[in-house]
Amino acid sequence: MTLKAILVEDEAQSRAILKNYLTKYCPKVEILGEAENINQALELIRTLELDLVFLDVEMPYGNAFDLLDKVGNRDFETIFVTAYNNYAVDALNAHASYYLMKPIDIDELIKAVDYVSEIKSKEDVLQDQVLIPKTNTVAGKITIPQQDGFEVLNTTDILYCKADDNYTEIYLKNDKKKLVSKTLKYFEDALTSSGFARVHKSYLVNVSEVIKYVKGKGGSVILSNQKQIMVSASKKSDLLSYFN
């Protein structure tokens, strides 16, 4: 598939290098425009239908995160391209799909573009379709510790789990909530084989209870109880694989 993209970079030479690499090694990327500051970038984003934005962090009149704040909800992916490695956490929190360091490694650039292409392809397949997981949830049970013993839950009754420091909140179909003194990683290990997917550092969802996927930023899922949960960019491809 073709990825419609823009380059946002204040240094003309850096833009030229990136454009040359993309033209030569990433033919699926169609460059629709270039911007040297966030004001120009914002205008392009608001006037073009984009799949991907290559984004430098530090620019005149603000930085990449200022730009994304101004854009608000978005249905394009972002690949950060920067000479600074101290923005990686901020980029992750901004739902960046990939983080490339300058000077650009061609293999990493190809890998980043392929990752975004995979995500967009899966999203296109899912658009306007009823979400039906390709794997059925295995009916089973899980025990959760209590002061006087343990409680047994049917895994099919669990909608999602939410991290709370070293505890986990388990949300059930009957609108009840259980607070358990186990980490979310514990439940991820225990429930992955039963059709649960880690969609965010703080959330584990029952894939069979997902009724809708919403594009934007990292994307989000809506569960059968209408709860909307953000999907981190690093988890998006794995989640979408359940449905196609």
TrEMBL record:
Every HTH LytTR-type domain range: 142-223
Highest taxon listed in the record's lineage: Bacteria
Pfam family, one: Response_reg
Keywords: Phosphoprotein
Residues with the 4-aspartylphosphate modification: D56
Signal peptide (residue range): none
Protein name: Response regulator transcription factor
Organism: Olleya sediminilitoris
